[in-house]
Amino acid sequence: MTKIKGSIGIMFLGGARRVAMAKLFRKAANDAGLELRLYSYELGRREPIADEADIIIGRKWNDPEVYAHLAEISDSKNIDVIIPFVDGAVGIAARFISLYPGKVWSPVSIGTDPDLMFDKVLAAKRFEELGLPIPATYIPGEPCMQLIAKPRKGSASKGIRLINSIDTLNEILSDADRYLIQRYIPNRKEYSVDCYVSRHGDPLCIVPRERLEVIGGEVTRTITVDAPDIIDLARKTLNLLELTGAVTIQMIRDMDNGALMLMEINPRLGGGAVCAVQAGADIPSMIISESQGLTPVASCNWITGTEICRYMQEVVFFPDNITQK
Fold first, then answer.
1. DSSP assignment, residue 136?
2. Which member of 78, 121, 196, 295 has the greatest number of CB atoms within 10 A?
3. Can you say whether the dihedral through the CA atoms of 68, 289, 108, 213 is positive or negative?
4. Geometric angle at alpha carbon 10, from 115 and 193, rounded to 5°
5. pLDDT above 50: residue 180
């Protein structure tokens, strides 16, 4: 990466638990010759990210004053880049850079409405329109297969229900507008694909990893895999949806027939993206380069078989809110 002199201000939006990623951004900035000023926009001060970043007490995502507040913070803290880490922050970041052009930069997609991706019903319809493979959507009145119901605006696997009886199906159908109902695939493998697409539409990295262990919707053990068909489907998806910036694509493989299908897209850095970065896809450096108006170099030499596992670590807060490091 080209050496740059000076400093850079980065603010995470909802980066509460992204301590490992914060350390990778610090390393990327240091490698670029930049002093990193790192902040995280949160509702409270006692979040783990306080171990690596200064906490900014923010507004809720549905607060109409959130954009003006972000503008105020961007000016007072000299913020150069904002990076969303939770679903609700993606649309906020995209709209903020549209409302205040030139104030900050963000690695979010502006070619596609980000809110579309967070409505599972609308997203599934869009995927079908584009000819992207997805699990069969249930059509009322047709023969019942084993099904899964996902809250259409849910996240982190919350509220998902398996449907294996007529009674459960009827219960879900009584409130069907709240759910995406699809065929359930019991013998499956799940994958996340960490992608970064330049502002010019060039995929700089596409790194598939198998989700080996998931707790509460967050991957806790994952490993990069050599899977050309996953990479091909991810590339096709990125192109058809005209996505840019950091994108995490969720896929599933039916192990009974090998079919690969698209599950959902999060147009932001995923919680397990640390694995892709450690494997060699230096997404933080790509983000910093683009924020400086430079063209990042594609990182294709990532290492298959790179595995990470997460563990709990305490961050101590004393009564005066000083963090013990």
1. P
2. 196
3. negative
4. 50
5. yes
